[in-house]
Amino acid sequence: MERYSSVFIAIFVLILRLAQAQNQTGFISVDCGLSPPESPYNAPQTGLTYASDAGLINSGKTGGIAKEFEPFVDKPALTLRYFPDGVRNCYNLNVTRDTNYLIKATFVYGNYDGLNVDPNFDLYFGPNLWTTVSSNDTMEEIIHVTKFNSLQICLVKTGISIPFINVLELRPLKKNVYATQSGSLKNLFRLYISNSSRRIRFPDDVYDRKWYPLFQNSWTQVTTNLNVNISTRYELPEGVMTTAATPLNANETLNITWTIEPPTTPFYSYIHFAELQSLRANDTREFNVTLDGDNTFGPYSPKPLKTETVQDLTPEQCSGGACLLQLVKTLQSTLPPLLNAIEAFTVIDFPQMETNEDEVAGIKNVQNTYVLNRISWQGDPCVPKQFLWDGLNCNNSDISTPPIISSLDLSSSGLTGVITQGIQNLTNLQYLDLSDNKLTGEIPKFLADIQSLLDINLSGNNLTGSVPLSLLQKKGLKLNVEGNPHLLCTDLCVSKGDVHKKKSITVPIIASIASIAVLIGALAIFFVLKKKTGSKVEGPPTSYVQASDGRSPRSAKPAIVTKNRRFTYSEVMIITNNFQRILGKGGFGIVYHGFVNGTEQVAVKILSHSSSQGYKQFKAEVELLLRVHHKNLVGLVGYCDEGENLALIYEYMANGDLKDHMSGTRNQFISNWGTRLKIVVESAQGLEYLHNGCKPPMVHRDVKTTNILLNEKFDAKLADFGLSRSFPIEGETHVSTVVVGTPGYLDPEYYRKNWLTEKSDVYSFGIVLLEIITNQHVIDHSREKPHIAEWVGEMLTKGDIRNIMDPSLNGDYDSTSVWKAVELAMCCLNSSSARRPTMSQVVFELNECLTCENSRGGAIRDIDSTSSLDVSLTFTTQVSPIAR
Ligand SMILES: *[C@@H]1O[C@H](CO)[C@@H](O)[C@H](O)[C@H]1NC(C)=O
Ligand SMILES: *[C@@H]1O[C@H](CO)[C@@H](O)[C@H](O)[C@H]1NC(C)=O
Ligand SMILES: *[C@@H]1O[C@H](CO)[C@@H](O)[C@H](O)[C@H]1NC(C)=O
Ligand SMILES: *[C@@H]1O[C@H](CO)[C@@H](O)[C@H](O)[C@H]1NC(C)=O
Ligand SMILES: *[C@@H]1O[C@H](CO)[C@@H](O)[C@H](O)[C@H]1NC(C)=O
Ligand SMILES: *[C@@H]1O[C@H](CO)[C@@H](O)[C@H](O)[C@H]1NC(C)=O
Ligand SMILES: *[C@@H]1O[C@H](CO)[C@@H](O)[C@H](O)[C@H]1NC(C)=O
Ligand SMILES: *[C@@H]1O[C@H](CO)[C@@H](O)[C@H](O)[C@H]1NC(C)=O
Ligand SMILES: *[C@@H]1O[C@H](CO)[C@@H](O)[C@H](O)[C@H]1NC(C)=O
Ligand SMILES: *[C@@H]1O[C@H](CO)[C@@H](O)[C@H](O)[C@H]1NC(C)=O
C-alpha cells in the first residue's frame, strides 16, 4: 500500500511538472515565412506552437534555407522572410504592456538566395537600434519591459544586403527577474557547465531560455542524480543545475573569460550555484567571486542541492572590454570552487521613445481603414527621423518624450469611405489634409475635439451632410471643404480668394439652431427699436423704379450715360414732368418717375432737405456712387445739387422690389424656388461688389427685401446703397449716435457696439434669405416668436425643414439646395460678426444652392428669359407706393 502511494505521488508530481512545462501562456512563437496553411504547428523537441508571420507584417517575401543546411537547423528556422523592398520593414506584435519579456530573433542565412554571401543589416527594436546582424547563423536576445501593448521589430537595410529573419519568439518573464537599474538586457551568453553537447530550452526551461553547455579541459565534471531545489525567481531548469564543474587542480581558480564590444559597455552577470557533492564534516567549499581580480562577492559557499544566484546589483565594466571572472578558493576552503551556470547581459538603452501609443493606434487605424500599403508605413510612424512615415510630420524635440504626430497629409491618396475614427486618436494633430480623395459620409464631429488642429483640408471629396457646428465654432481653425458638391454650408470657411494666399481665416459659425445668443440678441434689438421708433416698426419702404434704357440689363454701366451727370433743378423738373408721377417713398425722400432724353425712363429721388448731413458730404458721396457700377446694383444716372435742392436720378426698375413679389402685392408672386435663389444670388453679388469691389469698401447698411429691385427681366439689383453714410434715417438727427437700418434686419452686434462692418450687411442678408425661404414677415406679432430668426430657430429645433418652408413653393425644390440656404442664412445670422461668412462666401454658397436646384431633373430655368419665368403673370411698369 505504501509503495502504491509513493508511485502515485511520483506520477502526480510528473503530471504537475509536465503541465507546468507545457504552459505556453503569453508566448509568441512566430515562424517567419511559414505559409499560412501550415500554420500553426507544434515544433518537435520543444512542443512549442509556432504560427506563421503572415498577420504580423505586410511586406517581404518568403523563402527557405538551402537543403544542405536543414539537418542542422530547428524546424522554426527552416523558412524565413526576406525584404528586398523598402528600407525598413517591421513586425507588429501584440504584447502586454509593462511586462518583462524575453525576446529572441533568429537569423539563419542557409544560402536561402543561392548567393552565398554573409548578411549585413540592422535590427531595430521599435525606433531604436538593437543590433547589426552580420553572421550567417545567429540568435539575438533581449530582456525588455514593454511600455505599450504593441511592439515593433524592424529589419533595416543598410547596404546591398537584403534583410531576412527566420524566427521571432517572445516569452513573458516574472517582473522581478533580470532587473536592471536602467535599460534593457542584451544577452551575451547563457551557459551551463557540462561536458555534454545538449542545449537546454523549453520545456525544461519554463521561460524557454536557451542554455548552451560549456566545458574546459582544466575542469572536472560534477553531477548529481538527486533533485536540486530550483525554486528561485529565476526558475532555472533542473538540467542546468544538476551539473557543475570544479577545477581539476584543487588549488586552481575557476576562470571564465569573455570580451565586450564596445569595451565600456556595462553588463550584468548572473552566476548560478548549487552544491552537488555531499561534503564530509571536515570539508568546506568556500570561494570568492572576482572580476578582473577585484573581489565582487564572497567568501561564498554554495548551498547543498539548493539553487542560489549571485547577481550584480549594479552594472559592471571590464577594463578594455576583456573580462576575467574567477572563482577563487579561500584559504580555509578544503574543496575547489564550483560553478553550475552563468549568464551575462550587456545593458542596452532604447533612449528614443516610441510615438504616443494612442496616436500609433490611430494612425494604424487610418492605415487599415484605407488599406494604405505604403512601404514606408511600417514601424514607428515618427522615429527614427529617417524612417518618418511618408505624409506625416511629427514633433520630436526630445528623445525622452514620446514623439507626437503633428501633421497628416493624405491628399490624393485614393481614400474611399468615411473619415475614419482613427483620426480622433491623433490628438496632437495640427494639420490634416485629406483633400482630393473619394471620401464620403459626413464630416465627423470629433475633428472639433482635436484641440491642436489649425488647418483641415477636406476639399475635393464627396462628403455629405453639413459641416459640424462645433468645427465651425473652433477658433483659429482654417477649414477647407471646397469641392464637396453634396456638402451643406461648404466654402464658408475658405473663400476662393483666400485659397491661393493660404491665409488663415477665422471660421464662421453656423448659428446654432437654438443659438440663444442670436435669438436673445435679435429679440433685444427688436424691443429696443420698437421703443425708439414707436409704431414705425417696419421702417420706411424705399421702393422706387427707374427707367430702363433697353440695353442689356447685365451692362455694368448705368442706363443713361451723360458726360455731365450733374443736372440742374430745372432739368429735374423737366425729367419728372413737374413731379407728376410718384413711384414710391424711399428711405430719404419721395421717388418720382421721369424720362431722360424724352424716352429713357428714370426714377428721381428728391431728397428731403432736412435729411442732408451737409452739402459737401452729399456731393462727395454722390461722386463716389457715380463710380460704382455693377450689374446687380441699381445704377445712379446723375444727381442734382442746386442750392437746397438735392436729387438722385436712378435707372428704372420696372418690376419693383422683391418684397412686393413675396407678399403678392403686385400680383406677381414668385413661387419658384429657383427664381428666388437667382434673385438672392444676384443681390448677393451686388452686395459683394460693394464690400470687395469698391474702394473704399462700402457698407450698404440697409439690406432688405424692399431694397432688392427687379428690372423688366427680373434681374435683381440692390438699391439705396451708400447713402446712409451721409443721410441719417428719417426722424433722427445725430448720425454718430444713430444706428441706421431697418428693425428686424439690424445686426445685433452693430446695434450693441455701434460698430459697423460689412458683416452687418451679411446679417441683414441672412434675414433676406430667411424671407425667401419662409415668406414670413420679418417681424410678426401674431407668431409666438415675432422675429423671423427666432421663429426659424424654433421651428428648426422642432426638426422638419418643411415647417419653415414657404408652403406656396409646394415642396417643389431640391432639398439639398434649401438646406444649404437655411444653413447659410443661419450662418449669416450669427451673433458674432466675426463668425459670419463674407459676402464672397455667401455668393459662392448660393451659387452652389442654385446649381443643386438647377441640376434637379429638368428643372433648369432660363433666368434671362422672362417667358420662361413662372412669375410672368402681369407685368406692370409701375410700382405702387407702399405706405405703412
Ligand atoms: C500557465 O502560466 C500562467 C502564468 O505563468 C498561469 O497564470 C496559468 O495558470 C498557467 N496555466 C496552466 C495550465 O498551468
Ligand atoms: C493585435 O491587436 C489588435 C487590436 O487589439 C487586433 O486587431 C489584432 O488582430 C491583433 N493582432 C494579432 C496578430 O493578434
Ligand atoms: C555560415 O558560414 C560558414 C562559413 O562560411 C559556413 O561554414 C556555414 O555553413 C554557414 N552557415 C549557414 C547556416 O549559412
Ligand atoms: C563527461 O564527464 C563524465 C564524468 O567525468 C564522463 O564520465 C563522461 O564520459 C564525459 N562525457 C564526455 C562527452 O566527455
Ligand atoms: C594545494 O596547495 C596546498 C598548500 O598551498 C598544497 O599543500 C597542495 O599540495 C596543493 N595541491 C595541489 C594539488 O597542488
Ligand atoms: C585562471 O586565471 C589565472 C590568472 O589569469 C591563471 O593564473 C590561471 O592559470 C587560470 N587557470 C586556468 C585553469 O586557466
Ligand atoms: C577529513 O575526515 C576524513 C575522515 O572523515 C579524513 O579521512 C580526512 O583526511 C579528513 N581530511 C582533512 C583535510 O582533515
Ligand atoms: C576573499 O574575500 C574576503 C573578503 O572580501 C577577503 O578577506 C579574502 O582575502 C578573499 N580571499 C581570497 C583568496 O581572495
Ligand atoms: C484610440 O485610443 C484608445 C486609447 O486611448 C484606444 O482604446 C482606441 O482603440 C483608439 N482608437 C482607434 C480608432 O485607434
Ligand atoms: C457623391 O455622393 C453622392 C451621394 O452621396 C452620389 O450620388 C454621387 O454619385 C457621388 N459622387 C461621386 C463622384 O462619387
Automatic annotation (TrEMBL):
Record bears the keyword Metal-binding: no
Keyword Kinase: yes
Gene3D superfamilies per record: Phosphorylase Kinase, domain 1 (3.30.200.20), Ribonuclease Inhibitor (3.80.10.10), Transferase(Phosphotransferase) domain 1 (1.10.510.10)
Matching PANTHER family: LEUCINE-RICH REPEAT PROTEIN KINASE FAMILY PROTEIN, OS07G0107800 PROTEIN-RELATED
Major location category of this protein: membrane
Boundaries of every Protein kinase domain copy: 577-850
Binding positions (ATP): K605
InterPro entries: Kinase-like_dom_sf, Leu-rich_rpt, LRR_dom_sf, Malectin-like_Carb-bd_dom, Prot_kinase_dom, Protein_kinase_ATP_BS, Ser/Thr_kinase_AS
Transmembrane segments: 505-529
Location in or out of the cell: Membrane
Keywords noted in UniProt: ATP-binding, Kinase, Leucine-rich repeat, Membrane, Nucleotide-binding, Repeat, Signal, Transferase, Transmembrane, Transmembrane helix
Region (Disordered): 534-556
Membrane topology: Single-pass membrane protein
Descriptive protein name: Probable LRR receptor-like serine/threonine-protein kinase At1g51820
SMART domains (alphabetical): S_TKc
Signal sequence interval, chain numbering: 1-21
